[in-house]
Amino acid sequence: VRSARALDMCRSQGIELAGHMRGGILKWKAAGLPTERADWGASGLTVPQAVAASATVLVVISVGLAASVSPWWLILAAGVAVLLFQARLTGFCPFSRFFAGLGLRSR
Question: What span, in angstroms and rounded, lies between the C-alpha atoms of 62 and 45?
């Protein structure tokens, strides 16, 4: 019951113009009632941020596995470095295409 917790949080912060819909948004939409999506500007990760974050995670995993399992796991970190270098030289990054396909913003 996330909406009930969210309502409690709003009220604890002094926001009185908040309520709980019985049945939630799914029941609201099923009844054919109107909905709007707020346009708060761009949010979420951009493609370059997602590439950098995934590269960082892969390198951290690689170093952790190299320290705890086998030093051969450093090949993963080297592969990430090679792909990032290749992407910088050629302008083509497979991860960028993947994240763009997921709908992330380019900038």
Answer: 23
Amino acid letter for position 16: E
* Residue 105 DSSP one-character state: B
Distance CA 104, CA 87 (A): 18
The CA radius of gyration of the chain, in Å to the nearest whole number, is 22
Q: Which residues contact 42 (CB under 8 A, 6 or more apart)?
A: 105
Whether the full predicted model's pTM is greater than 0.85, yes or no, is: no
Burial class (CB in 10 A: 0-12, 13-18, 19+), 47: buried
Residue type, 87: A
DSSP character string of 13-34: TT--S----TTHHHHHHHTT--
User: 51-70 pLDDT, tens per residue?
Assistant: 999 999 999 999 999 999 99
The token pair at 62 is 């690689």
